[in-house]
Amino acid sequence: FQGINSLSFGNKSWIGTALACDSKAAAQRGHVCRAVQQSSKSKVSVVPLDLESAKEPPLNTYKPKGPYTATIVSVERAVGPNAPGETCHVVIDHGGNVPYWEGQSYGIIPPGENPKKPGNPQNVRLYSIASTRYGDSFDGKTASLCVRRAVYYDPETGKEDPLKNGVCSNFLCNSKPGDKIQMTGPSGKIMLLPESDPNATHIMIATGTGVAPYRGYLRRMFMEDVPNFRFGGLAWLFLGVANSDSLLYDEEFTSYLKQYPDNFRFDKALSREQKNKSGGKMYVQDKIEEYSDEIFKLLDGGAHIYFCGLKGMMPGIQDTLKKVAEQRGESWDQKLSQLKKNKQWHVEVY
To answer: Which residues pair with 239 in a beta bridge?
Structure first.
């Protein structure tokens, strides 16, 4: 076992839980970070475990006509200085009153009136939840969102036009701790993590903030001590972003690679830094093509495949999968309909 922060004594490992809690943040939350001796890898205990007892996911507990008022805990920039644009990690306190499952979304209603329907509130904007049901403080009271600030630049002048900026993303990224926000949900079932087989293979494909649900899956698989879900399968993440500074949650994902090399794979497509085999920009579909034989074999063996991000990602990916299928002498349309029928195909694009 090659641990982050680990010393081995026989078959025991002493593991500093650096991965599990940032000491400064933990101190603020009253958490204590300590080395834990155990024969398995160190995981974080979570509460309340009755969040595991529901047979069905919660759905639309709060609706647009009666939203829940939640509180901003923190807003932090999640990308480096050379990332094009700004992406924020937003932690929201819902007091345990709006429980959700990994892969679901919350709706956010930004303040102000709907420009198309004066006198009415703004429309709901959906955001994939980027934390597990226990939240980043492991107590079931918070949820995290991964939000890219939508900024509009005038094509003629090249200058930012604040009047056309994304209303909700700017509201969230500008929020301060203690601010109140109106929330609906949770919603969505297509991206729920199927847990009936803890040894299944999950192939996760994301562009940008589409990585949000996978952060939740991976924390549940590798960071949290969930008694009724012991993951022993393979999680394979493909993440497409512009450059290294745009990588989201990279330290977290890299630590899983060190701790769980047999259960986690992580491939990055950096379009402004890497070239594909024909010398063009490296997009996530180029990475899929690179590993296509393996991916197809895994799908034939029952693997789940997930796609999350901007809807513009799908045509290129579909074309790549079609091309690969044809090279293998298979019909992509038939294969796709079989994957959908078997509930192996999960897509959430926006």
So the answer is: 206, 268
Task: Report residue 316 as tokens.
Answer: 């290129």
- Average pLDDT per run of 10 along the chain, which is 350 residues long? 34 34 40 34 92 96 98 98 97 98 98 94 97 98 97 85 90 98 98 97 98 98 96 98 98 97 98 96 97 97 97 95 96 97 97
Instruction: Provide the pLDDT for residue 41.
Output: 66
φ, ψ for residue 82, nearest 5 deg: -95, 10
Region(s) of the chain under CATH 3.40.50.80: 201-349
Kindly list the distances between the CA atom of residue 53 and the CA atoms of 48, 226, 305, 320, in Å, as whole numbers in the listed order. Answer: 10, 12, 26, 40
- β-strand partners of 267: 238
Q: Tell whether residue 348 is among the known ligand binding residues.
A: yes
User: What string of DSSP letters covers 183-205?
Assistant: EEEEE-STTPPP-S-TT-EEEEE
Instruction: Return the pLDDT at 158.
Output: 85
Tell me the pTM.
0.87
User: In the chain, which segments carry CATH 2.40.30.10?
Assistant: 49-187
Which two structure tokens, joined as six digits, stand for 339? 């994957």
For domain 201-349, give the CATH number: 3.40.50.80
CATH 3.40.640.10 fits 49-187, yes or no: no
CA distance 311 to 307: 10
What is the reported pLDDT for 13? 32
From the list 107, 99, 101, the residue with the least C-alpha distance to 184 is 107
Q: Is 272 annotated as a binding residue?
A: yes
Amino acid occupying residue 2: Q
45 is a catalytic site residue: no
Catalytic residue among 74, 128, 175, 187: 128
Q: Catalytic site residue 23? A: no
